[in-house]
Amino acid sequence: MNEQRLDLEELVRSGGIETYFAPVVDSFTFDKVGYQIFQAPVGDPALGSAESENFRSALHASDLIGDIDASLRETAIRTAEAAGLPNSNRLFIRAEEESFATLEDRTSEPDRSVILQLDASRVSSSPASVLRAVRQARSMGWGVGMSNVGADLRSASFVPLVNPSVVGLHPEVLRIGSNSHLAELNRLLHAHLERTNAVILAEGVTSEADLDRVRALGARYMSGPYFGPSTKDPEPFEQPFEDALADHHSRNLPATGTPYSIAKGLRREPLEMNWDLLLKQIAALEERALASGAATVTLGIFGEDEDFSRATYDRYERIRDTVGLTAMFSGGFTVPPVPGVRGGIVDASDPIRNEHGVVVVGPDWSGLVAASKRNDPGSDGQTMYDVYITTERYTCVDAARSVLTRIMPANTAD
Question: pTM here?
Answer without folding.
Answer: 0.90
